[in-house]
Amino acid sequence: MKLDRRTILKAGVAASIAGIAAPVIGQARKKLRVGYLHTPAVDGHLWLGLQMGSYAKHGLELEPIVFTTGLEIFQAMIGGSLDVLATGAVVSNFPARGQGKVFLVNDIEYGTAQLWVRDDSIKTVADLKGKQISTTTGTTAHVFLDRALRAAKLEPGKDVQIVNQRMADAVTSFVSGAVNAVALWVPFDTIVRSKVPHARMLIDASAFYPEAAIMGGWAARNDFYEAQKPAIRSLIAAWGEANDAIVKDSDAAVETLQKSQYKDVPLAEFKAQFKQAKYFSTAEWRTKYEDGSVTRWLQQVTDFFARAGNIPNPVPASRYFDPTAYLEAIKA
């Protein structure tokens, strides 16, 4: 049955979703400082859940704090100014250094990372040999770019020059013609489409799924995770309500998010961007937690960071990712 948009936003509907842990009633709300990236694959569950009232219903008061990159979010959390965070591929980076515990994944960033070119002579990734590509290193876009280049038998840093910039600056460099290509994540493609009408998307991350998958997710400070397990389970349960609302009627969820958080992106374009991520129901995610799929996908990205970032003795995903809180909060 198709859910009405207004109905989705009522906490009463969320409470009817089967398999979600019971809300906390009659207790003072636990305050959580949450760092996040303003991109739909990362903050969609956060904002939809807040509008539905699911976090409040589960006894939480969230303080969302926006950042530009996952690198900056993790640095803030490690410094003690955040309790938890939501980010993209960087969720497989710092925890591999022993800094943060991963406990929840949002989605698979199926096509959110994209490689754009402006020169008609560039038909394939292999044609980028000897060219400059802007991106933000250490991020989802960089992980995707590295895989795309290697698949085309190009050695990053040798066959192509990667220019490391903040994403807004990387896109500006591409728009101005200073570089031949840019590896970005949505919604930055909106700027490229509007400023460089003849630009073309050469490839996106979906080309490497399911053999490889870049996931975005949530991590907590090590000390917070160990001391605040009930709050972590409540966060997951509330997230689950928003997640199943997205899966049951994505059009209604997307409309709500666009009107409240992404007004600068036309609705039709935002819907297209939203579909670049792959979402699963809470029950489907439970299976992927149990069968090791999530751990395996996280490890693939950690392997990239270990190589590119020279991480000595990286902590494996099987140790930095803990599925138990999800399995306790989301019942079979």
Automatic annotation (TrEMBL):
Subcellular localization(s) per the UniProt record: Periplasm
A Gene Ontology cellular-component term: periplasmic space
Upper classification of the organism: Bacteria, Pseudomonadati, Pseudomonadota, Betaproteobacteria, Burkholderiales
Name assigned to this protein: SsuA/THI5-like domain-containing protein
Cited PANTHER family: ALIPHATIC SULFONATES-BINDING PROTEIN-RELATED, TAURINE-BINDING PERIPLASMIC PROTEIN
One Pfam family hit: NMT1
Family: Belongs to the bacterial solute-binding protein SsuA/TauA family.
Keyword tags: Signal
Organism superkingdom: Bacteria
UniProt signal peptide: none
Domain SsuA/THI5-like: 115-252
